[in-house]
Structure formats: C-alpha cells, structure tokens
Design goal:
By secondary structure, the chain is α+β, with helices and mostly antiparallel strands. The protein has one domain: 3-Layer(aba) Sandwich (D-Maltodextrin-Binding Protein, domain 2), CATH 3.40.190.10. The protein is built from 6 helices and 4 strands. The C terminus is likely disordered.
Length: about 100
Amino acid sequence: MFVQLLSQRVGAARFTAAEYYVQKANQLLWQHMHKYSLENLEEGVERLRNGSLDVLIADTPVLDYYRATDHGCKLQKFGDTINEDTYAIGMTKGFPLKVSRFGVD
C-alpha cells in the first residue's frame, strides 16, 4: 500500500502518532514525507485545499472532523483505516488515487 504513495505529495504533522506509525511501518515512505513536513494538522488540511499536498496521514477521528466541517466540501477520506490504531489518509475530492490501487478491500 505505501509504495504507491511514494509518487504523491504525502504529509503528516511532525511529532504525531501518525508520523511515528509511518516511520515504523515504512522507512522509505517516512523519508519521502520529509519533503512535505507539516508543522501541524491545520497546515496539512490547508495544503490539501490549496493543492500543494496530495495526501495527509492523520488520526481518523480528526480527519472525519475536518471533512464534516469543510464548508467547500473539498476533503475526502480514502478507504478504511490503515491500521487498527485508526489512522486514515485524506485527500481532495476527485483525487485520482483509488482504493483498488492499494489492494484495500
């Protein structure tokens, strides 16, 4: 799953559980994400909205909150959670990445 993300602009807020999870799960993706390092989650959501970030990895409940309160309705959650600790991937609506590309059912 993580290999397909290497061609995307992927970010997570620094020093968060989401960043730590990626660091432990896939060193290559974690290193790739440093190019898109985020000070906080709000920066990540704003960068999704303005198109300077393709994918935001964060806690599922937090991404759900942003999706529910996004007045322009530009954010979507991608697939199910990526592990039992409820991390999810967020991206703008219409982003070409599909669940089948990751083999997630």
